[in-house]
From TrEMBL:
Belongs to the UDP-glycosyltransferase family. Coiled coil: none annotated. PANTHER family: GLUCOSYL/GLUCURONOSYL TRANSFERASES, GLYCOSYLTRANSFERASE. Signal peptide: none annotated. This is Glycosyltransferase. The keyword Transferase applies. Keywords: Transferase. It comes from the Eukaryota. InterPro entries: UDP_glucos_trans. The keyword Transferase applies.
Length: 482
């Protein structure tokens, strides 16, 4: 046992089984490997199966003998969609069926060996509250990590206060009514900026029931790891510390990892950990476009639209006269074979100025000098990647934290335009022109300023650099007590 105690701490990382959280947790795993920790990344079998189709996930960790991937069942049938409105069924199944499997995995000795000590610390997505139960039962320290935006997480923390104050459920249909029960956001938050499920007005809504205990659940852990940086989210982080005093803002994670890879002088490169096959032909197309002339359009890995919405967006893009690179996933348009129904004028306009792919290497696209703006669904990873690369945004949020994020992009960070609750070709045309032409210099100046702050926070002595060092120190200290 003494020999095992001399081995590095062994951290088990358990992400929420969705593209964005899994992508972020892979990056966190690599960062912790560089810090000399042993890591077990625990993926649901469904996520692991999808990942191995498009990425060589294990070879990127070959230089880290202390890294391993393990899989666990999410308890659902293989053909369950696990997306959209059905995703809440994943939570129920994880709580009821995965929880005992998780506890057994941690106590059976399955994860340790002669070269790896038993798990000495857990890092789990904070919405997986059962992981805190198991950690308490078996006496392991646990850190929560949230890969959604702090501004949305703070609203989750404030849901009980919103209900108690009478601001929720809404008393009428005016979505522009101010919300005043979220400390730090009183000056700009409206009903329409709350997470989309708040519009149901049903206190028994499964989302309300899931998220209204976030403050209690996340405060059970030793600390809360966040993918953001102080200079971007200080306003909200100061509020969150009243509930979770021990915060570790270590983002932007994707750039933090790139920096560590550069420092280590390794040939290892970051990967998108994508659940979709990337079409790299778009990079060749971008190479032939003028500087900052292209608006990149992507609504992430989950958002879907109707054929009518597709047409409005498409006409708006073509009519704006701007160059565009658009990601339209194979399942982007619900139940429609849109490729066989493209009007001739759209086909011609796209041929002249546009390029469409099924999936793109997004970090590389946003870093490309030809890209001057980003029309996004406002997923948190996408926003941080855009902030880091200094790209202004048009925001068309789809669900969960995205409604809140889009308001912060426009009203707080002044990095772009919020187009939520809108799907009209004339508005699309105007916003694209505003971002790419009319207000281009204004938005680029602000985006460049925030990009510099994002880069500086990751340098030695910067806020995220120091917070990450603090996290590693605390993991080692707590592991020594196990």
């Amino acid at each position: 046992m003494d020999e095992q105690q001399s081995l590095p701490p062994h951290v088990l990382i358990f992400p929420l089984p969705l593209q964005g959280p899994v992508n972020s947790m892979f990056k966190l795993a690599q960062l912790l490997c560089f810090s000399g920790l042993h890591i077990t990344l625990l993926l649901t079998e469904n996520i692991h199966t999808r990942l191995v189709l498009h990425t060589d996930i294990s070879s990127r960790f070959d230089q880290f003998p202390g890294f391993q991937i393990k899989t666990i069942s999410d308890g659902l049938q293989e053909d369950h969609p696990r997306e959209g409105s059905k995703f809440l069924e994943v939570f129920d199944s994880l709580r009821s069926k995965t929880k005992p499997l998780f506890k057994d995995m941690l106590t059976s000795g399955l994860l340790s060996s002669g070269k790896r000590r038993p798990v000495s610390c857990i890092i789990a997505d904070g919405v997986l509250g059962f992981t805190c139960d198991v950690a308490d039962e078996i006496g392991l320290p646990i850190f929560c990590v949230r890969t959604i935006s702090p501004c949305c997480l703070w609203i989750f923390f404030c849901l009980p206060k919103l209900i108690e104050s009478g601001e929720y459920p809404f008393k009428d249909d005016d979505l522009d009514e101010p919300i005043t029960s979220v400390p730090g956001a009183e000056a700009f938050l409206r009903r329409r900026d709350l997470p989309g499920f708040c519009r149901s007005g049903d206190l028994q809504d499964s989302n309300i029931q899931l998220f209204k205990t976030e403050g209690q659940e996340n405060s059970r852990a030793y600390g809360l790891i966040l993918n953001t940086f102080e200079e971007l989210d200080g306003l909200i982080l100061n509020q969150m510390r009243t509930v979770c005093p021990n915060l570790y803002p270590i983002g932007p994670l994707h750039a933090n990892l790139k920096n560590r890879l550069t420092e280590a002088k390794t040939s290892l490169r970051p990967s998108s950990n994508s659940l979709w096959a990337e079409d790299r032909s778009c990079i060749d197309w971008l190479n032939n476009q003028p500087l900052k002339s292209v608006i990149y359009v992507s609504f992430g890995s989950i958002a879907t639209m109707t054929n009518e919405q597709l047409m409005e967006f498409w006409y708006g893009l073509v009519n704006s006269g701007q160059r565009f690179l658009w990601v339209i996933r194979p399942d982007s348009v619900a139940g429609e074979d849109w490729k066989n129904k493209i009007p001739a004028d759209l086909a011609e306009g796209t041929k002249e100025r546009g390029y469409i792919v099924g999936w793109a290497p997004q970090e590389e696209v946003l870093g490309h000098p030809a890209v001057g703006g980003f029309w996004t669904h406002c997923g948190w990873n996408s926003i941080l990647e855009s902030v880091y690369e200094g790209k202004p945004m048009i925001c068309w949020p789809y669900f969960l934290d995205q409604q809140v994020n889009s308001r912060f992009v426009e009203a707080v960070w002044k990095l772009g335009l919020d187009m939520k609750d809108t799907c009209d070709r004339e508005i699309v045309e105007k916003m694209v022109k505003d971002l790419m032409v009319v207000r281009k210099e204004e938005f680029l100046e602000r985006a460049n300023h925030m990009s510099k702050l994002a880069k500086n926070c990751l340098m030695e002595g910067g806020s995220s650099y120091s917070n990450f060092e603090h996290l590693v120190k605390d993991i080692k200290s707590l592991s020594d007590k196990v």
